[in-house]
Recover the amino acids of this structure.
């Protein structure tokens, strides 16, 4: 396999499972040394010679500082940031509390902001870098019962564009990927069978199936690689054709 990311240092949040885990392993397999973080202790299962792990809540400023600091301390730099960690909520607007709103926004929007800020600081001190933020199709289209989730993902999409404009001249690119429905454990604790529930949405996608974590990891890897060198500030739909309808 071509070592696309040889000598590159990557930080992947939400790496314990799903898209984050697939992304961390994909970047590692292509030559990157990876800092993998998650709120779950399960992230330590990824520990390897070229993967170091860290647990922490991405909504906390200290976690972002520790994560970027670990990349610089252990590997000497930070070249790639993948902001994947996030939470969802399926609830009608009138049934949501202020606490519900603050909880989702603190993880998805604030957590992404904090990690972008710390990563940009490290990248400015180095040779530039690449940020890939994981948004969602609901950053562009509306779905019922997703008000706070959609707002948080819309914030991520716009934050990505601003970073691209502010720091492009300093060698930093920023793009976001907007997955459609992907078969993961994100609905765990919300429904009895997260994967089955998500897989049941196959017919809503023109491609005839929902996504798998590796599908999105491949798009992230492309956006993090030199192959996308002329792309920045983009929201890339990886949705099986959902938003083409």
């Amino acid at each position: 396999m071509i070592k696309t990311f040889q000598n590159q240092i990557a930080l992947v949040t939400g790496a314990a499972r799903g898209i984050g885990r697939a992304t961390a392993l994909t970047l590692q397999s292509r030559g990157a040394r990876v800092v993998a973080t998650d709120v779950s202790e399960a992230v330590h299962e990824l520990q390897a010679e070229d993967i170091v792990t860290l647990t922490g809540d991405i909504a906390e400023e200290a976690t972002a500082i520790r994560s970027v600091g670990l990349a610089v301390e252990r590997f000497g730099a930070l070249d790639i940031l993948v902001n994947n960690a996030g939470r969802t909520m399926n609830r009608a607007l009138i049934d949501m509390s202020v606490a519900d709103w603050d909880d989702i926004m603190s993880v998805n929007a604030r957590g992404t902001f904090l990690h972008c800020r710390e990563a940009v600081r490290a990248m400015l001190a180095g040779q530039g870098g690449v940020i890939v933020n994981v948004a969602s199709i609901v950053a562009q289209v509306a779905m019922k019962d997703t008000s706070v989730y959609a707002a948080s993902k819309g914030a991520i999409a716009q934050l990505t564009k601003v970073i691209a404009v502010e720091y492009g001249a300093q060698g930093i690119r920023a793009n976001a990927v907007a997955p459609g429905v992907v078969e993961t454990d994100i609905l765990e604790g919300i429904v009895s069978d997260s994967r089955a529930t998500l897989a049941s949405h196959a017919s809503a996608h023109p491609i005839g199936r929902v996504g798998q974590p590796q599908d999105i990891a491949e798009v992230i890897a492309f956006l993090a690689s030199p192959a996308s060198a002329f792309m920045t500030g983009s929201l890339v739909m990886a949705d099986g054709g959902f938003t083409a309808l």
About this structure: The beta strands are 9-13, 33-38, 51-55, 80-83, 129-134, 172-179, 235-238. The radius of gyration is 17 Å.
